[in-house]
Each structure stands twice: as C-alpha cells, then as structure tokens.
Design brief:
With 412 residues, the chain is α/β, with parallel strands linked by helices. It contains 14 helices and 14 strands. It has a 7-stranded mixed beta sheet, with helices on both faces. The longest helix is centred in the last third of the chain and has 35 residues, at 377-411. The N and C termini lie far apart (67 Å). The relative contact order is 0.15. The model has no long low-confidence stretch (mean pLDDT 95). The protein binds 4'-deoxy-4'-aminopyridoxal-5'-phosphate. The site of 4'-deoxy-4'-aminopyridoxal-5'-phosphate (PMP) has 14 residues, from helix 4.
C-alpha cells in the first residue's frame, strides 16, 4: 500500500531538506493575520507582502467587502449547486453580462476558479480530430485541460512565433487548430509577443486563446490585458481570465464573440459538475471589476511601484525576467542559495514566494515577487534594502574575489 507514495519521494526529499535547513520553511508558511493588502503577520513577525497576486490591492476594497457581506445576508453563504441546476442566481448572469460588456464581447461564461476555466474550456473545445498548440511554458491548468481532452497536443517553444509557424505548417489546413498562449507568464513575468502570435495564427487560419490571468487589470487603457494593450482583441478568439489576482477574489471566466461558447454550459465538465460561485464572491468580483474599469490611477500606482522594484533589482545585479511587469522572478543560483536568500528577506520582514521546479521554467529556483499598487514608497525602500543584503550575502564574496584577482593580474 505504501508503494503508492514512492513516486513522491523525490519531491519529499527536496521539501525535507528545506525543513532541515530552516526553522521557518518557505514552503510551509502560515499567515497569522492580514493587516492590509501589503502587510501581514507571519510567525509572529510583521511583514511587507511582496508575494501575493494582489496586483491592485483590491482584496480589501471597502465597497467589495460591503457588497460581499450584503450578498451573504441576502442569499446565503453558498449556492450548493451547479450552474446547470440550482446554482445559477441572477448575480451570476449579471456578472457574465458585466464581464462581456467590459471586454466588448458578445459572450461570457463564468467558472468557479481560473484553473477550472482553463481545464473546462480546453478539454471541451477541442475533440478527437482537433489540434491544440500550446506554449511550452504554459500554466499547469492549461496542461491539465489538454490532458483531459481528446485533441492532439503540440507544444511549441516558449514565446517563439517562428516555431509556432513551423508547427502549424505541418498540420492539415482543414482541421480545427487552437493556439494557446498567456499574456504574462506567471513565474518570470515575461510577456508573450502577442501581435506576432496572432499574425501567425491568422496566417494559418487557426484560432487563438489568450490566458490573461496575470495581465488583466494591469495592461491596456481599460485594464483588459495585453490583448487590449497591443490592439489585437478583435483577432483573439477566446480570452480566459481569473478573479484570483487583480480582481482580488476567486473565480474564472472566458469571453468570446463566438456564439458557440454558450455550448460549453453543457459540454465543459468543470462547469457542469461543480458548484457555482457563492453570492459573496459574485458580489465582490462585480464590485472590483467596476473599480478596475473606473480607477486608472490604480494601474498608474502599480506601474510606478513596478518601475522602482524592477529597475532597483536590475541595478543591484540580480538576474530577473526580460520584461518589466509586476511579476518579477528573481533567479537564485540554486535551491540552497534560494532558501538562504528567502530567509534573509524574511528576517527583515519581507515576504516573497519561493518558486521551484517543476512550477518554474528551465528548472530554476526563483524568488517570485509580485508588486502591488498599494505598496508605499517607504515599503519599496525597505524591500530594496533587504534585497541588497541578499545580493551581498549571495554574491558579495564572489565579487570581492573577482576584484582581487583582477587587481593581482594588473599588478603582475
Ligand atoms: N492561468 C494562469 C496563467 C495562472 O497563473 C493561474 C494561477 N496561478 C491560473 C490560470 C489559475 O487561476 P486560479 O488561481 O484563479 O484558479
């Protein structure tokens, strides 16, 4: 019986190494109290949170909290049913209309999480004779949606439209082909070359879906994401989004102008066979969505903070992702160095996320920072000071050695 668990021994080994090394395990943190979108107490220590996906700080939006409480009072704590049964309240339908209007699209379908939006949509949309082409660095929910469906799955090189072009050229032109990319990749924060991907997709007469999980609320004049920013919304067939990041709650959705999207209400198992979002969540999402739409100053604050941290870390000498976005993955030399760095930050009251393979691309260990519109300038000063101590601890001795050997060579 215990043999079932043997396959986890590798990951267990890595985790127990962490525990042996540290009293405070970066993979097992418990947040004791939340003070604000950027402050919490962890292990008795007041910390600045730099490891959330709370890009706009909306988890504590007063209007959303009030709407959420009122919705619970009015309609209870849960729907206790699927959207296809007793779980479709007028709030769900109104939210779908609000999202469709926001994107200026004809159709929207809500899911209970962003994960389920990808799994439900992808596994249902493509059948036995169809092809799905996905970026190699796709999120687990995209991979899982592919696994659950019957289509043939083809991976192309990360952020490489030329490679996609080659792969599409080998497929029958009369087959259904769906290309899937993300607006911003969740670990290194790199941006998809979306215009190029759209051009290649259209050249081959294929369809394209963009997961805007980490770009909605952040890019574009109205905060709709990189498709809006790059002016390709009309050429993108499907957009997937989540409420668990900029929207500050939980839930997922897909928008499209294709009327067929409505068919997923009976075809997508992750829509049919799960309970719908509770009224409190629907109300909070609706409120925060309006805030995102009507408060461009939030995006401005987020970009101000992102600029400071991205360039600050770059100037220190850290290796970070190629694009400046609020997701900043700081590459660590190895897991041990990463744990040490994480602890140095934590000792100074800075909480970041530790990201390890297989969740990271190319097997790297990352300190994954996510920037928030609500970070103050004083907090950013503290974050940068703490990262400087990390840099000195990880690379200071090495740099001194290198300098000494250059001097020695010069004087010889
Ligand atoms: N897509 C991407 C690109 C993600 O990063 C995530 C979550 N990290 C999801 C989908 C799933 O979203 P959720 O957490 O809302 O289920």
């Amino acid at each position: 019986m215990t043999k079932f668990f043997d396959k986890f021994s590798h990951i267990k080994q890595i985790r127990s190494n962490f525990l042996e090394q540290s009293e405070c395990n970066p993979l097992g943190m418990k947040i004791e109290e939340i003070y604000s979108p950027t402050q919490a107490r962890i292990l008795g220590k007041d910390c600045i949170m730099v490891g959330t996906n709370n890009y706009l700080g909306l988890t504590m939006n007063e209007d959303a909290i009030n709407a959420s409480c009122a919705a619970t009072q009015n309609a209870g704590t849960g729907t206790t049913g699927s959207r296809v049964a007793n779980g479709s309240y007028k709030g769900h339908q109104a939210l779908e209309k609000q999202i469709a209007d926001y994107y200026e699209k004809d159709h929207c379908i809500l899911f209970t999480t962003g994960y389920q939006a990808n799994v439900g949509f992808i596994s249902a949309i493509a059948g036995r004779d169809d092809y799905i082409l996905i970026d190699a660095d796709s999120h687990a929910s995209i991979y899982d949606g592919c696994k659950l469906g019957d289509a043939t799955i083809i991976r192309f090189k990360h952020n490489d439209p030329e490679n996609l072009d080659k792969k599409l050229a080998r497929l029958p032109a009369d087959a259904n082909r769906l290309v899937i990319v993300e607006g911003v990749y969740s670990m290194l924060g790199d941006l998809a070359p979306i215009k190029e991907f759209v051009a290649v997709t259209k050249k081959h007469g294929a369809a394209i879906m963009v997961d805007e999980a980490h770009s909605m609320g952040i890019f574009g004049e109205n905060g709709r994401g990189v498709c809006e920013q790059e002016g390709v919304e009309d050429d993108v067939d499907f957009i997937i989004g989540t409420f668990s990041k900029s929207v500050g709650t939980i839930g997922g959705y897909c928008v499209s102008n294709h009327a067929g999207l409505q068919d997923l209400r009976y075809a997508a198992r992750a829509y049919v066979f799960t309970a719908s979002l509770p009224p409190a969540i629907v109300a909070a999402a609706s409120e925060n969505l309006s805030t995102i739409q009507n408060t461009p100053s939030l995006r401005k604050a987020l970009w101000h903070n992102t600029d400071r941290i991205y360039y600050g870390l770059q100037d220190m000498g850290f290796e970070i992702g190629p694009d400046k976005t609020p997701v900043i993955g700081v590459k660590m030399p190895d897991i041990e160095g990463g744990v040490r760095a994480w602890q140095i930050l934590f000792e100074q009251g800075i909480y970041v996320n530790m990201a390890l393979p297989p969740a990271t691309p190319a097997g790297v260990c990352l300190l994954r920072c996510s920037i928030c519109a609500a970070h103050t300038d004083a907090q950013i000063d503290c974050i940068l000071v703490a990262f400087q101590t990390v840099y000195d601890a990880l690379y200071g001795a090495q740099e001194e050695e290198e300098e000494a050997s250059v001097k020695k060579a010069a004087s010889a």
